[in-house]
Design brief:
about 260 residues; alpha/beta; Rossmann fold; 7-stranded parallel beta sheet; 9 helices; about 15% strand; binds nicotinamide-adenine-dinucleotide
C-alpha cells in the first residue's frame, strides 16, 4: 500500500510522552519531517533524537497549546523550517480521575483548556494554510471516554466528545478543500517505562496505580485481552494521515482492542 508520507511534514502536539512519543516513532519510520510541540522541551528533544535515529527530520518547539499566540508562532516555525504543514496531530491531553461531584471550576477550566481549547487553537492556526494549499489532514487523539462515558472521567469525557463533534463539523466545512479530519480513540495505554514519559505527563502521578493485579482486572474488559500500546495508536494515525485514507473524513476510530464498539 502506498502511504505517500515520505518527506511530508507533521506537527505532533504532546509528542514528548507516551502516546505522542509512539505517534512520533511511527511517523519517523515513514521518513517524515516532524515538529514536536510540547511544554516539556527536554523530554521532547530526547524523542526528536529517537525520531532522527529512525530516519526522519525532527525538531522541537516549546509550546503551550492552550495559548493561541504561542500556537501561531509554533505553526510559523514549522512552515519556516519544513516549508509546509501537511498534517497536524492534536494529541495533548490531561485528566485526573475523580467523581464529578468532587470537581471544582478551576479543574473544569484546566481540563477544557488542555483537551478542547488546544484542539481549537491548533486547528485554527493550520487550517488557512491547508485550505490555501488545497491539502491537509488534522488528526486528534480522542478517548473512548468521549464515546461511551466513563466513571470518574465526566469532564474529560465531555471534552473528548467535544473534539469528536468539532471534527465532524469542520470536516463538513473544509472537505471541499481536500482537508480531512479524523479522531483516534485509545483505550488505557500505559507507558512501559519511565523513559517513555516526561515530567508534565499525567502518568507521573498515576502510573503507580496500575499494579499487575489492577492490570489483570482491567484487561478483562478488552476482548483482545491486552492493553494498547502507543504504537497501536501511532499506526492508526499513520494510516489516517496517508493517501490510503484519502476518502475518510469526519470519522472516529477506537483503537482499544474492542473495549468500545460503536
Ligand atoms: N494514555 C491513555 O490511557 C489514554 C487513553 C485515552 C486517551 N488518551 C489521550 O491520548 C493523549 C496522550 O495521552 P498520554 O497518556 O500520552 O499523555 P501524557 O500525559 O503522557 O503526555 C501528554 C504530553 O502533553 C504535554 N502537554 C501537557 N499540557 C500541554 C500544553 N498545555 N501544551 C503543550 N504540551 C502539553 C506533556 O508535556 C506531555 O508530554 C491525550 O489526548 C489523552 O487524553 C490517553
Amino acid at each position: 500500500m502506498e502511504l505517500g508520507l515520505k518527506g511530508k511534514s507533521v506537527i505532533v502536539t504532546g509528542g514528548a510522552s507516551n502516546i505522542g512519543r509512539g505517534i512520533v516513532h511511527c511517523f519517523a519510520r515513514e521518513g517524515m519531517n516532524i515538529m514536536i510541540a510540547d511544554l516539556d522541551d527536554g523530554q521532547a528533544k530526547k524523542v526528536a533524537d529517537e525520531a532522527k535515529a529512525l530516519g526522519s527530520k525532527a525538531s522541537v518547539v516549546k509550546t503551550d497549546v492552550t495559548n493561541y499566540d504561542a500556537v501561531e508562532a509554533m505553526v510559523k516555525k514549522t512552515i519556516d523550517e519544513f516549508g509546509a504543514v501537511d498534517i497536524l496531530v492534536n494529541n495533548v491531553g490531561w485528566d485526573l480521575q475523580q467523581l464529578f461531584i468532587d470537581t471544582n471550576t478551576d479543574f473544569w477550566d484546566k481540563i477544557i483548556a488542555i483537551n478542547y481549547r488546544s484542539v481549537l487553537n491548533c486547528s485554527k492556526a493550520v487550517l488557512g494554510h491547508m485550505i490555501e494549499r488545497n491539502s491537509g489532514v488534522i488528526l486528534s487523539t480522542g478517548s473512548d471516554a468521549g464515546r461511551i462515558g466513563e466513571f470518574r472521567e465526566a469532564v474529560y469525557g465531555g471534552t473528548k466528545g467535544a473534539v469528536i463533534a468539532f471534527t465532524k463539523a469542520v470536516s463538513r466545512e473544509v472537505g471541499r478543500y481536500n482537508v480531512r479530519l479524523n479522531v483516534v480513540c485509545p483505550g488505557v495505554t500505559i507507558p512501559q517505562s519511565e523513559d517513555e514519559y516526561g515530567d508534565d505527563s499525567g502518568w507521573k502521578l498515576s502510573r503507580g496505580f496500575f499494579t499487575e493485579e489492577v492490570m489483570a482486572k482491567v484487561v478483562k474488559a478488552y476482548p483482545l485481552r491486552r492493553l494498547g500500546t502507543s504504537e497501536d495508536i501511532g499506526n492508526a494515525m499513520v494510516f489516517l494521515a496517508s493517501d490510503a485514507a484519502n476518502f475518510i473524513t469526519g470519522q472516529t476510530l477506537s483503537v482499544s482492542g474492542g473495549y468500545s464498539m460503536m
